[in-house]
Automatic annotation (TrEMBL):
Protein name: Oligopeptidase
Record flagged with keyword Cytoplasm: no
InterPro entries in alphabetical order: AB_hydrolase_fold (IPR029058), Pept_S9_AS (IPR002471), Pept_S9A_N (IPR023302), Peptidase_S9_cat (IPR001375), Peptidase_S9A (IPR002470), Serine_Peptidase_S9A (IPR051543)
GO molecular function, one term: serine-type endopeptidase activity
Coiled-coil blocks: none
Superkingdom of source: Bacteria
The keyword Amino-acid biosynthesis is annotated on this UniProt entry: no
Native source organism of the sequence: Bisbaumannia pacifica
Keywords: Hydrolase, Protease, Serine protease
Residue ranges annotated for the Peptidase S9A N-terminal domain, each copy included: 21-412
Family stated for the protein in its record: Belongs to the peptidase S9A family.
GO aspect biological process, one term: proteolysis
Pfam families tied to this protein: Peptidase_S9, Peptidase_S9_N
Domain called Peptidase S9 prolyl oligopeptidase catalytic: residue spans: 471-694
């Protein structure tokens, strides 16, 4: 006999005095947890017929990848470091050996062993003392992004818990006994940087002194810390979404009071790099797409305002995204607006300060991802590069600046019946509602791409200026092997076409993001790639906002959608400054205390624009310990849509348009921390997508 579906949790827990389900925000109320557990049971019941498919997807994924993984070894001054993850392990072990003595290897951090006592484990940061005698690391064992600080003598010392409830970032000073870290305020904003002077002489490490280094009072600004590759300066940054300010401390004299490099100026962002004698300032002051200036070190530290000398001018068709300094010159990360493509530019600087060779590093294909790998040595003339694309797995290369030769260091192996060379990628250009050209990337099996229309999964993000550069996914091969096309909508609000692309999709321009996503969907249909009746959408976090708002505009455009930890209660969240992230997000979404901003947010916030009409099949996912997008946002969306469906006489989990909620009660914003659990979660999600696309039997 077929098991009867459980009574809808929405019908059981509905409160007539709270039609908007705000009571779900009370984390301490037992009925909240009971509601989420009931929704999980309902979700599991619905998925039961797909369990075999999810298991097949999971097993297929495992068969395609190399489960025993050895990371790329990186030599420092005294030792060479790498990670190893055993075939059956969720987490890596970290190893090292003295340079030139590979047989003398020793494990110095075993995350698999540390995870045994916890349902969740995330490594925040790992910092080696300059003499490589001590390891400090931060770890989160609940998913709420509150970290504990540990210290151990290498390689075999016992870990010592030094502090709890801190931020993830760590940085050693160059005196081998001072460690810097961040702390949170009540809204989990990193508002202060602290200095620990450590007593490392005795048998057990101890804190000799703890001192406040810098505090940021403005609730829109967050503090971060780092050290220049030259190892000369500690850099403390205070930044909002559109303004930044840097402070400097000599790395070999960490008790020195921090000195402000340039006071903040509203709307001006800058970042610093250093070579002996010179600071390099990447900034957008009178340069919307950023430019690069040089400042003499002596002038920068003097009392008078220093002269900033232009090095790389502002350009209308490129955005400068980053700068890395070496003894010989700079590597500049820049983005071509027209091609929506990242490039690495090598700028050699002569000893006397003049410009030397200036060239772009070659690309394997377009579109692709290209970035510097781990490069700790300041004088290295062999660059480590990390490349990947939608059709090519991750590989690490060594590029010799002298000869121009490239050497393959490591490549992710792929097994199984679908090889990377059997895939094809295409870049389309959709026409937006205002005539703008929207890049859309598509990957599918090569023999199918021109034989469409294909069932399609459309992925989107589009916020904070983050880019969706091409990435290879082993799990995605399970969908591609079954004839699905995977597409990415590079909408405004992201950084895919540089800084102008980001600015054109935030604040008063936010609606462009949603319109672009729908334009991408329509272009896939118009160009014969996608089957109009079989397109599913996926969005996570702010991508959940993107998909949720797009569904409100055109629910008929998609047969299904997956919203993972989705930011869908935008107005209510932005009206609560006591929540984590809220005040820091004013420059992204707007401050609802301002009437125009409140109206704009109200007009697109997914939960504030639900209509009583059928929505496509929905799989919503949340996490109990998520401090970025609280569990109650997807829960409220599930409850309100389900309540509407019940009122229309529909059975939300029994028809063609189910509304499902699954809450991970032991994870945070990033989902499960162990790789096998994360892969199982992904397989379940893909089973839903294949069901929605009519491919559950493949």
């Amino acid at each position: 006999m077929k098991a009867q579906p459980p009574v809808s949790p929405v019908a059981r827990f509905r409160r007539s005095d709270d039609p908007l389900w705000h009571w779900l925000e009370d984390r301490e109320a037992p009925e909240v947890r009971a509601f989420l557990e009931a929704a999980n049971a309902e979700c599991a019941h619905w998925f039961a017929p797909l369990d075999a498919l999810a298991e097949s997807l999971y097993r297929g994924h495992l068969a395609r990848r190399e489960l025993a993984v050895t990371g790329l070894a990186t030599p420092l001054d005294h030792f060479t470091y790498w990670s190893e993850t055993a075939a059956e392990a969720d987490y890596p072990r970290w190893w090292r050996h003295p340079n030139g003595e590979p047989a003398a290897k020793a494990c110095f951090l075993d995350l698999e062993a540390r995870a045994e006592a916890h349902d969740f484990l995330e490594l925040g940061d790992m910092a080696l003392s300059p003499d490589e005698a001590w390891l400090a690391w931060s770890e989160d064992t609940s998913g709420d992004e509150r970290f504990a600080l540990y210290l151990k003598r290498l390689p075999e010392g016992e870990p010592r818990l030094l502090l709890e409830e801190i931020g993830p970032e760590l940085s050693w000073a160059e005196d081998d006994q001072t460690l810097l870290f961040t702390r949170y305020d009540a809204t989990q904003r990193p508002d202060s940087i602290w200095r620990l002077r450590l007593d490392l002489a005795g048998p057990t490490p101890a804190i000799a002194e703890e001192a406040l280094v810098l505090r940021e009072e403005d609730p829109e600004f967050w503090l971060g810390l780092g050290k220049t590759r030259s190892r000369a300066w500690l850099v403390l940054e205070s930044a909002s979404k559109d303004t930044s300010e840097c402070y400097l401390i000599p790395a070999d004299a960490p008790a020195t009071p921090p000195r402000c490099f340039r006071p903040r100026e509203s709307g001006v962002e800058y970042a610093l790099e250093h070579r002996p004698g010179t600071f390099y300032v990447l900034h957008n002051r009178r340069a919307t797409h950023f430019c690069l200036d040089a400042v003499a070190e002596a002038q920068a530290l003097g009392e008078a305002s220093p002269a900033w000398l232009p090095l790389v001018a502002h350009r209308d068709d490129h955005t400068l995204e980053g700068v890395d300094a070496f003894a010989w010159g700079l590597v500049i990360t820049e983005r071509d607006h027209d091609r929506a493509q990242v490039r690495l530019r090598v700028l050699e600087l002569a000893v006397e300060g003049g410009l030397g060779d200036d060239r772009l590093l070659p690309l394997g294909e377009v579109p692709s991802s290209l970035m510097l790998g781990d490069m700790p040595h300041f004088d290295s003339r062999r660059l480590r590069l990390r490349e990947e694309s939608f059709t090519r797995p991750v590989r690490w290369l060594e590029h010799d600046l002298e000869s121009g030769e490239r050497r393959l260091l490591k490549e992710q192996p792929i097994h199984g019946d679908l090889r990377p060379e059997q895939l094809a990628c295409r870049r389309l250009w959709a026409e937006g509602h205002d005539g703008e050209r929207i890049p859309v990337s598509v990957v599918a099996r090569a023999e199918l791409l021109d034989q469409g229309p294909l069932p399609t999964l459309l992925y989107g993000y589009g916020a904070y200026g983050e880019v969706l550069d091409p990435w290879f996914s082993v799990a995605r091969l399970e969908l591609l092997a079954r004839g699905v096309a995977f597409a990415v909508a590079h909408v405004r609000g992201g950084g895919d076409r540089g800084e102008p692309w980001y600015l054109a999709g935030k604040l008063e321009h936010k609606e462009n993001s949603f319109r672009d996503f729908l334009a991408a969907r329509d272009a896939l249909v118009a160009q014969g790639i996608s089957d109009a009746q079989r397109i599913a959408a996926y969005g996570a976090s702010a991508g959940g906002l993107l998909v949720g708002a797009s569904l409100n505009l055109a629910p008929q455009a998609f047969c299904a959608a997956v919203l993972d930890v989705p930011f869908v209660d935008v107005l209510r969240t932005m009206e609560n400054p006591d929540l984590p992230l809220t005040t820091a997000e004013y420059t992204e979404w707007g401050n609802p205390d301002e009437p125009d901003a409140r109206r704009r947010i109200r007009d697109y916030s997914p939960l504030d624009n639900l209509e009583d009409r059928p929505y496509p099949a929905l799989f919503l996912q949340g996490s109990w310990h998520d401090t970025r997008v609280p569990y109650w946002e997807p829960a409220k969306l599930y409850a309100r849509l389900t309540e509407q469906a019940l009122a229309r006489g529909e059975t939300p989990t029994g028809g063609p348009r189910p509304i499902l909620l699954r809450s991970d009660l032991s994870a945070g914003h990033g989902g499960a921390s162990g790789r096998f659990k994360a892969w199982r979660d992904n397989a379940r999600q893909d089973a839903f997508i294949l069901w929605a696309l009519g491919l559950a039997d493949t």
